[in-house]
Amino acid sequence: MTEPGSDGGPDPTIMVVDDEPSNLQLVKFALMREKFPCNLVLLGSAAEALDYLGGHSVNLIVLDVMMPEMDGFETFQRIKDNPAWADIPVIFLSAVHEPRYIIRGLEMGAVDYIGKPMISQVLTARFQAVLRTRYLQRELKRRNAELESANRLKDEFLSFCSHDLRAPMLAIELTCQMLSDTAERVGSGEAQELIGRIVNQTRLARRLVENLLDMNKLDEGKLIPRPTFFAPRELLRGCIEDHRPMILAKGLNLDLDCQAAEAIGFGDREMIAQAIRNILGNAVKYAQGNVRMQSRLEGLSGEDAGTWTVSITDDGPGFPGGDAESIFHKYSHNNQGGAGYGLGLYIAQQTAGLHHGAISAESRPDDETTLTLRLPIVFRRDALPDLSRHSDASVRIIAGAKETAELLEHVLLEVGLVDVEQCAPACDPAQEFGADPPDLAVVDLASSAVETAPLMRFINRGHAPTRWIFFGSAEELTEVARLAGPAIAGLRTPPNPIAYLRTVKALMDDRLEPMADSG
């Protein structure tokens, strides 16, 4: 793209609008005197200007303020209201020098306000500055669009490559496992060792592929946690086993101090495991001889969520204190001559954020580096209620957001309830539940798609044996408080899985008792 008026570029078109012909001639003579290259369009009214803009391209508009029929301010507003003309710069050129006029023009969006009588050198200098600024703005916009397009192509390329690489990597890993089993049967220890190395390298390559896929999903906002219950201790042990071949190959000592037996986690198990594997892999990569892992539980009380803290320390070269935050950037590099941290720590940080947690780093150069992951997602194991008595209970979920509906459904499926289904958020409960009422209905009030009025009418008519759980804000739950009774419960949003299951148990246990007469 060539700048208007530059060598080889088209001369800019400047439209000057003034009801006084003498003023138009003065502008023309000023530009001629300064030999300012342009296509000059001189018009005597706002109506002519708007008509001209309808069929011509203009680089700069110069408006007189005091014009009959339609003044400069009204003309300016009409120009800005038209999307096709809105980005054309406008300069007010007027004999009216009152501050209120100048302020009004600039507040409306004019790029300049020049008083009469005009000085030719000042006039052309301001015209040149405005045209130059507009050119640079448009050039920046064009280049940003090109960069965005290139970035999209890059992301698509990485996504396709990562997706296509995942299958052959997994096939190689499975094939090597079969070879290892065969070598074990024939008693070939050397073959097993070699195959083990291939398996290890294949796993590392597969994790790189998974990181690339996760990065693309993060950038597109498509990496959404799918929470499940899991055992923190077993998750940690699985992460260690994945890295054991490299730990043995480097002759590292791994010390695990795990305090997690009494807890149960609730989060996206695979996503969290990938984050911990990435942190541990970084420690194994830079460790000189020792790696320490510590697992701690904090704040476990009743049905409230506690924090699971996993700290991984290595005795590698570390990084300068100022690099603590930068190591979590995409494709970050260390300053110790190493290859860098790649995507792993970036993925770990994003995973922590998606689980409302955090990750931090501390390092003493040439001493130790500790990365700490904190996730507020653990509960006391004995707080998980036993719902095995109610495995045959029918449950219907009503929620506007797909993620919320899936979460409310999945929690119940995980504890053994099998007859759990989602209903349309705007369903008619009389039609949906009338002939075959469920034992329990769970309603999320957070979405406007959920129509509460028919639900309230349905409940007020006393349709037992359905029990109801409502999730919502304090205000939303107050709306249904008048219906409170043994068959209705309210819980605050976002769903706490343990409180949710305990409420389900309390309501369903009551189901086994004779129903009170609803009157």
Structure description:
The chain folds into 4 domains: 13-118, Response regulator (Rossmann fold, 3-Layer(aba) Sandwich); 144-219; 228-382, Heat Shock Protein 90 (2-Layer Sandwich); 385-511, Response regulator (Rossmann fold, 3-Layer(aba) Sandwich), CATH 3.40.50. The protein is built from 14 helices and 17 strands. The chain has helices at 21-33, 46-53, 72-81, 99-108, 120-186, 189-219, 232-250, 269-286, 344-354, 402-414, 429-433, 452-460, 474-479, 497-511, and strands at 13-17, 39-43, 60-63, 90-94, 112-115, 228-230, 253-258, 263-267, 290-298, 306-314, 358-364, 368-380, 394-398, 419-423, 440-444, 467-472, 488-492. It starts with 12 loop residues before the first strand and ends in an 8-residue tail after the last helix. With 519 residues, it is α/β, with parallel strands linked by helices.
Assembly form of the protein: single chain
Total strands: 17
Strand % is 15-25%
* Approximate shape: extended
Overall pLDDT level: 82
Report the CATH architecture of the largest domain: 2-Layer Sandwich
Give the CATH superfamily of the largest domain. Answer: Histidine kinase-like ATPase, C-terminal domain
CATH topology assignment of the largest domain: Heat Shock Protein 90
Give the low-confidence spans: 513-519
Radius of gyration: 35 Å
Q: What is the SS-derived class?
A: alpha/beta
Biggest pleated sheet: 7 strands, mixed
Helix content: 40-55%
Q: Please, how many domains?
A: 4
What is the count of helical runs?
Answer: 14
CATH classification, class level of the largest domain: Alpha Beta
First-residue to last-residue Cα separation: 81 Å
